[in-house]
Request: fold
Amino acid sequence: MSKTIELSPVTRIEGHLAIKVEVEDGKVAKAFVAGEMFRGFEKILRGRDPLDAQHVTQRICGVCPVEHGVASVLAQEMAYKLTPPANGFLARYLLQAANFLMSHITHFYILSGPDFVDVAMIADYKGSDPALVALRNWVKSQLASRTVVPGGPFLPRYAAKYLQDADANFTVLRHYLEAIEMRTLEHRMGAIFAGKLPHAATLVPGGITEKVTALKLGEYRAGLDTLRDFIEQSYLPDVIAVAKAFPEYFTVGKGCGNYMSYGVFPVTAGSDTKLFPSGVLLEGKLQPLNPDVIAEDVGSSLYSSGSGLSPYAGETEAAPDKVNAYSWLKAPRYNGKVMEVGPLARAMVGCQDGQNAALKSAVNALLKEIGREAGDLNSVLGRHAARALECKFIVDQCAQWLDQATPDEPTFTDFSVPESGCGHGLTEAARGSLGHWIDIGDSKIRNYQCVVPTTWNCSPRDDRGVPGTVEQALVGLPIADAQNPIEAARVVRSFDPCLACAVH
Ligand code: NFE
Ligand code: MG
Reply:
């Protein structure tokens, strides 16, 4: 007998995501993933001064504003034929890196962690760690309260198998609390070059308006040392502990199997050699990225026109009553193919021969430690592992950029906005490939289109009826108890969706 399960909104992600799965014989037979909100940033931008774009688009999201700002200034630099000086590039990389680290650590501990950790066990904590004692007392007071959600944000929760060992749970819960402090630190480090965060005030085409001084570089370096310790001594070991405790999550949540990375984090200022290289892995074969074959379908999306258009020609006309459409996300495709983007995609592309040999050996070493094989990476826990490993590589790269920066040298190149021109800015955000496309006429924005990581991953069916990668990852998933569909929540959260971004 078939049964339909609807989750709306899915919690512990960003934004308004609904999933609907049809379960037959205990397994998902069909899945629909929908963004439930229209925002209209692409319409807001039309007719505005191009220099508004990096500020307006950062308001798409409070989680990855920096990456939207970076994508925007890259698009404008292409349109203005402009290259930043070395310090401008390096300060931007350090800012974007701080944002990646903030996003990944928050995702594992705050958003996904409670799917695996037995948070209720804290009520039985008998140790003397002051932070855990305070957490225990607070959870108990919440449980006794009649006026708020009992135990929130930890409880109520799905009945499921969580980490069994009490000490393992207490360890991860202690790190959950530390992760909140790391998040503050990462924002402070980013703000050294952003002026403030979220929403960097300093990003401009041609570089960055904040100065690079010895004091700023030293402050960033001090924060980096704390973060490196947390990543090496807490984050990676905790991901490994979860991976060993839930081996079944290396066999579910398989996405479409095609991976894309626009490439991010040049190893020196302006270099084409990137820590996470660009490329498209299509049916197991690596191809160079060709931005010209990116297009968006709207057959299943709540938009009225412009299916299959390149972003330069893209349109954003809302059609809330459109028949047979079910999502406010468009369906981006690469040469007509569904792509997975994000940390796993960056690892898959980066591990191909000729890309990043150090990343490949680190991925293999991690797989060996967990007792898994390369074929297991396309899974829920493969995504978590890729995210954690990526943090270690980013921290080490940051230390190199700090060495490369020259205090008090210029951070931006002056320019004027041309009367007409167009450009695209392709970068990677924490959740995957992010592109902004700008078309300028009469010195105003004629068209502005964003194609965003979660739009790729959470896309609805395209014009050929092919489901998006999260929809594909849900199909075949065993769901033991329709009242407690934690399996589906774990699959969806492994992609770290941000629906505010996806619908923009
Ligand atoms: Ni709103 Fe974002 C990231 C971007 S995801 S978080 O990372 O771009 O679609
Ligand atoms: Mg768009």
